[in-house]
Amino acid sequence: MRIAALDDDALQLQLLEQVVREAGHSCHTFLKGTALQQALRRESFDLLLVDWELPDIAGTEVVRWVREQVSKELPIIFITHRSEEADIVEGLSCGADDFMIKPVRAAELRARMSALLRRAYPLSAQSVLNFGPYRFHTATNGIEIDGKPVEVTHREYTLALTLFQNQGRLLSRDHLREVVWGHNSEVQSRSLDTHVSRLRNLLNLRAGQPYSISAIYGYGYRLDVPETETTSVA
User: Fold this and answer.
1) pTM of the model
2) Which of 71, 93, 144, 223 could form a disulfide with 135 if both were Cys (CB 3.0 to 4.6 A apart)?
3) pLDDT digits (tens, 9 = 90+) for 60-106
């Protein structure tokens, strides 16, 4: 998963980054609220860790902005020195999903992140996943359409599954590159476009079809699905 951490304390950010990476996720750090806001205009993340006291804008304002401008579902955890009941109520009321008081305990943070990520992205990686006529076999990295197998590479499978698991959600180019090629990979942008183009052809995800991949200029890609789409886990 791709996680953003916001805190004006560089040492605190290092701690958060370490915990996030040890939990198996990628972490992108920000020292100012406006820097995170700017990033969210061109990037997508799976979870946000937000400090309250910032040098430029209050963490509560950042969370409200995210809920109004970015997503009402994106998981957010407040991490702050504030510990009064009124602060906790305000933090949760402005749109955060969870609230942690500093100093952060690594095991607790990992557990809270895991709980929120399971709730927000509930599809099991150990199951056969069905999306309308599409079936993903996670054990073999195989895809079927109406019961007929489609030959895909490992990266094509990973990209397709990521899009289907986030159907209707706009994912940034960097987000998709990290998922498919890894956080430290310096793959060229054109490689992502080539893989998306192949998926459109292999899985019939072209414009005008019930399931289609839309490109959002300057941002990334989104899988558009029928309004009646349902997902099942076998």
Assistant:
1) 0.84
2) 144
3) 999 999 999 999 999 999 999 998 999 999 999 999 999 999 999 99
Rounded Cα gap, residues 59 and 70, in angstroms: 15
- Could you tell me how far CA 164 lies from the centroid of its own chain? 13
Q: What is the pLDDT of residues 194-220, one digit of tens each?
A: 999 999 999 999 999 999 999 998 899
> Rounded to an integer, what distance in angstroms lies between the CA atom of residue 27 and that of residue 16?
8
Q: For the residues of 91-151, what is the DSSP string, one character each?
A: HHHTT-SEEEESSPPHHHHHHHHHHHHHHHS---TTSEEEETTEEEETTTTEEEETTEEE-
Tell how far CA 154 is from the center of its chain: 20
Sheet holding 148-150, edge to edge: 148-150, 142-145, 134-137, 128-131, 231-233
pLDDT of residue 183: 67
Please check whether residue 41 is in contact with residue 71, taking contact to mean a CB–CB distance below 8 angstroms.
Answer: no
Cβ contact 128:167 at 8 Å = no
Structure tokens at 108: 């607790």
The DSSP call for residue 226 is -
Which residues sit opposite 136 in a β-bridge?
129, 143
* Residues 6 or more apart in contact with residue 54 via CB below 8 angstroms: 6, 8, 32, 33, 62
Tokens of 2: 């791709």
